[in-house]
Amino acid sequence: MSKKVEFRLSGAGGQGLILAGIILAEAALRDNKNAVQTQSYGPEARGGASKSEVIISDDDINYPKVRESDVLLALTQAACDKYMQNLKENGILIVDENVEVKDRDNIKIYRYPILRTASEIIGNKMVSNIVALGVIQGVTNIVSTDSLREAILERVPRGTEELNKKAFEEGFKLANN
Amino acid sequence: MDKKVKLMQGNEACVEGAIAAGMRFFAGYPITPSTEIAEISAQKLPRVGGKFIQMEDEIASMAAIIGASLTGLKSMTATSGPGFSLKQENIGYASIAEVPCVIVNVQRGGPSTGLPTSPAQGDVMQARWGTHGDHPIIALTPSSVRETFDLTIRSFNLSEKYRVPVILLLDEVIAHMREKIEIPNEDDIEIINREKPENDIGEYRPYETKGERLVPPMASYGEGYRFHVTGLIHDETGFPSNSPIVAEKLIKRLIDKIEVNKEDIISFEEYNLDDAEIAIVAFGSTARSAKSAIDMARDMGIKAGLFRPITIWPIADEEIDELSKKVKTIIVVEMNLGQYVYEVERIAGKNCNVIGFGRANGELITPDEILDKIKEV
């Protein structure tokens, strides 16, 4: 079987997780892989629960949703509580420092100040999603780092490139320290 | 990365396909999960000299695209569930007046406002019989982002060729998912335009057909041709008639123009059917789950395959009849509580066992659930 990795990026609406999923999938395409991104959200514009899923594979991807994820990012307690049980054995859980992780065997847990890095070091909590992408890349090395950098710059609003570049590097550093 | 390879959402691919097909008018009333189609049309149409208009409601949007099409513009609207219900009266008008147009319906959970952000395939029968009376219709349903691009073009081509409203049935999963798509070169895309009259302006009879061609050539308003368009039964001049002879001739021709051209209109995909004992019939996003389930079943030594209608109306009756003679069981998987299964049963029921597997809770049916059903059989 070829390599297939399933990501679930979860948190609150407005945290930019759908965009983070799109960027991750676009980085995978730059590496000549297949990727599918899906999302689910409530009727609210912001504030409710938000979830973005990405499947990256060398092969065709039929069923486009994620059942059990290999990697779970949870930026809020509610998201972590809800999706942790659907993390695979030996799966990777990446959470914000504010999230308490309940006991679960056979997973790898990475806890970083993702939201604080965005608001205090970068000075803009809007880039939490890009800090999170830096952390994900630092932990999983799922795509080539250059592809991910390019994908970020292509998608973020014009004029925010430097801010987002810095957000990515800070996130990447968190995971590599 | 090649510039033409992109990560694209189904709804976006629909607009890209529409513009490639020559869409130059869009009227709509935005509704989840079809909203991106209106948004992106509003952005892109002005750049190609087209027009976008947000109407006061869905039935007016449908009326607007009929009007635009009569002036010669390729026209489209997009909606979901409740909006599709509202459009039905004017879809009937487009059918009887033979006005080419494309109606995209991104299916969401129903009835009524139902589950606005969740997928469903509950409008299969409404696509066929939503408007009243005997009427011709074509409905296509894609399973991927790339196929959404291709089938949007094909919807325009078929509507132009047969002067019929074509319904593109998406579901929320296909409409909102993003995947890899390679946009073909313009030169590789086949475009069909409606046949224009060759008569002198004074001699044009708008609903006159010649020989075996059951589709009358179509003039555009503004070109100098004067003609009457009505939702009433009409004769070849386009004016209303109460004659049973005229009524029978018109309705029969409207139905026949699709019926006799079924071979051209119907398309489908077969996957692992050669030696299959169990065939799944599934379309749209459900077909993706079915493919995964079939791969899993094959790994276990179960001979399962997929018949995927791409044209769901008219139904591929000859192909399904053939299939029913080769397999022991057909399982129709759809995100509703049983619609297409009854059509399949009508065709295949005399030759093999036909069972339905459906659900209407707003969740995509998973490969495991389909595999369980296969194992049960």
UniProtKB/TrEMBL annotation, chain A:
Keywords annotated in UniProt: Oxidoreductase
Domain of life of the organism encoding this protein: Bacteria
Pfam families in the cross-refs: POR (PF01558)
Pyruvate/ketoisovalerate oxidoreductase catalytic domain sequence ranges: 13-172
Tagged with keyword NAD: no
GO molecular function: oxidoreductase activity, acting on the aldehyde or oxo group of donors, iron-sulfur protein as acceptor
Signal peptide: none
PANTHER family for the chain: 2-OXOGLUTARATE SYNTHASE SUBUNIT KORC
Protein name, per record: 2-oxoglutarate ferredoxin oxidoreductase, gamma subunit
Annotated organism of origin: Caloranaerobacter azorensis DSM 13643
Automatic annotation (TrEMBL), chain B:
Alphabetical keyword list: Oxidoreductase
Domain of life: Bacteria
CDD domains for the chain: TPP_PYR_PFOR_IOR-alpha_like
Domain called Pyruvate:ferredoxin oxidoreductase core: residue spans: 276-370
Record carries keyword Magnesium: no
Pfam families linked: PFOR_II (PF17147), POR_N (PF01855)
Oxidoreductase recorded as keyword: yes
GO terms of molecular function: oxidoreductase activity
Residues covered by the Pyruvate flavodoxin/ferredoxin oxidoreductase pyrimidine binding domain: 16-243
Record InterPro entries: 2-oxoacid_oxidoreductase (IPR052368), PFOR_II (IPR033412), Pyrv_Fd/Flavodoxin_OxRdtase_N (IPR002880), THDP-binding (IPR029061), Transketo_C/PFOR_II (IPR009014)
Record-linked PANTHER family: SUBUNIT OF PYRUVATE:FLAVODOXIN OXIDOREDUCTASE, SUBUNIT OF PYRUVATE:FLAVODOXIN OXIDOREDUCTASE-RELATED
Protein name: 2-oxoglutarate ferredoxin oxidoreductase, alpha subunit
Organism: Caloranaerobacter azorensis DSM 13643
Taxon lineage: Bacteria, Bacillati, Bacillota, Tissierellia, Tissierellales
